[in-house]
Specification:
Elements (H helix, E strand, L loop, with lengths): L1 H21 L8 E16 L18 E14 L3 E12 L6 E13 L4 E15 L8 E19 L3 E14 L2 E14 L1
C-alpha cells in the first residue's frame, strides 16, 4: 500500500514536466490532453422494462441513486480554445444498486469560452448491466445504446501544462423502455 502511494505521488509530481516535454510549440499542430476527475452525483431512471425483458431475479433498476464518479479523458487540443476528447464515465452507486450498473464512453468537443471557462458536448455509447450475485460465475446481462453528454466547467488553477477545474457533467441514454440520466459535480486535473 505504501509503495502504491509513493508511486502515485511521484507520478503526480512528474506529470507537469512530462506534459511540458510533450507540448507542441505554437503553430506546430495539435497537442495531447489527458485528465482524470472524480466527484459525486445522482442517477435517475424513468420508465420500466417489460417483465419479459428483465433478467431472471431482477427487479426494475432503483431510482434515484447517489453515485460516485471517476472519469478519464484524453484527446487532442487544437490551439488554446478547442479540444477533441474521448471520455470514459465510470463510477459506482453509493446505495444498493440491486445488481444494476452503468458506464458510458463518449467523444466530445470541448471549447474554452475564456482561458478558464469551458463547455463540452458529445455522443457515444452507454451500457446498462445486471448481474445477480457477486460470484464470478454469475451471468451478466448487458444493454448497449447510444448516449449523449454535456458539461461545463471552470478552471480553478490554470498553469502552462496542467489545470485543475470544477465542473458539472450530464449524460443520458435510453434502454428500451428506460431512460437514465446522470448529473455529477466533479473536480479534475487536465494535462496538456
Amino acid at each position: 500500500m505504501r509503495l502504491a502511494i509513493v508511486c502515485a505521488s511521484v507520478l503526480l509530481v512528474a506529470m507537469p514536466s512530462v506534459a511540458a516535454a510533450q507540448t507542441s510549440s505554437p503553430g506546430s499542430g495539435p497537442s495531447w490532453v489527458y485528465g482524470i476527475s472524480a466527484g459525486l452525483g445522482r442517477r435517475t431512471t424513468t420508465g420500466t422494462f417489460l417483465t419479459t425483458e428483465l433478467p431472471a431475479g431482477a427487479a426494475q433498476p432503483p431510482s434515484p441513486r447517489a453515485t460516485a464518479s471517476l472519469d478519464l479523458e484524453g484527446g487532442l487540443a487544437f490551439g488554446k480554445h478547442v479540444a477533441l476528447v474521448a471520455i470514459y464515465e465510470g463510477g459506482a452507486a453509493l446505495s444498493d444498486a440491486h445488481g444494476w450498473g452503468t458506464f458510458a464512453a463518449h467523444a466530445a468537443i470541448r471549447g474554452w469560452l475564456t482561458p478558464r471557462l469551458w463547455i463540452e458536448g458529445g455522443a457515444g455509447v452507454a451500457e446498462l448491466a445486471f448481474r445477480a450475485g457477486s460470484t464470478s460465475t454469475s451471468q451478466t446481462t448487458r444493454w448497449w445504446q447510444p448516449g449523449v453528454e454535456a458539461a461545463a466547467g471552470y478552471d480553478l488553477f490554470h498553469g502552462p501544462t496542467i489545470s485543475m477545474g470544477l465542473f458539472v457533467r450530464y449524460s443520458e441514454a435510453a434502454f428500451d423502455g428506460l431512460r437514465q440520466q446522470s448529473v455529477s459535480v466533479q473536480i479534475g486535473l487536465l494535462g496538456r
